[in-house]
Design goal:
The radius of gyration is 39 Å and the shape is elongated. The chain contains 8 helices and 2 strands; from the N terminus they run ααααααββαα. Its main location: nucleus.
């Protein structure tokens, strides 16, 4: 049975050649080939996850045959039947996506032509804020009680009338 050239290139099918191991014995018998075809119906060893699918194929084939067949033998058998590179290239890759630059529809062209609006104060002066000068992004500092106590002693030593009420808190009271 000879297949037409177009059919051969479209589906990546090669002519049949039996697999023979080093001892000259045929590794593939009718039962193992049938099991191989049943296994590749559900688990195609092409695409991004072809090696994982091959593990399933190998396990399914070996569960039904008496002599275990290695994944290398399965790859060679599939390579003798099909053009695996063509099949791999024709497989749709679900992880590959084409990046497309976003653009607004034409109905927004009038808005795109306007200058970027700025915030203006009541006096008409435009106000622009840098994101680094926001009060949220400024680092807050913590004053210790010792610095407050030292400020009161400095203020009292300068002879200026300062009235501050600082409650002295002991370390035991802080813990409560």
């Amino acid at each position: 049975m000879k297949l037409s050239g177009m059919f051969r290139t479209c589906f990546g099918i090669k002519q049949y050649s039996p697999m023979v191991d080093q001892a000259g014995l045929d590794v593939w018998n009718l039962e193992s080939e049938i099991q191989l075809f049943h296994a590749i119906l559900n688990h195609k060893p092409v695409g991004a996850d072809r090696h994982f699918q091959m593990i399933y194929v190998c396990n399914l084939v070996n569960s039904f045959v008496s002599d275990p067949i290695s994944t290398d033998d399965i790859w060679k058998k599939l390579g003798s039947l099909y053009n695996m590179e063509e099949l791999h290239d024709s497989e749709v890759n679900p992880f590959q996506s084409k990046m497309k630059e976003f653009s607004l529809p034409e109905e927004y062209d009038s808005l795109k032509s306007l200058k970027y609006p700025r915030v203006t104060s009541n006096s008409g002066i435009s106000v622009s804020r840098s994101p680094r000068t926001d009060s949220c992004s400024q680092k807050r500092t913590r004053k210790s009680l010792r610095s407050v106590d030292s400020n009161t002693t400095l203020a009292s030593s300068t002879n200026s009338p300062v009235t501050t009420t600082v409650s002295s808190v002991t370390s035991r009271e802080k813990r409560r």
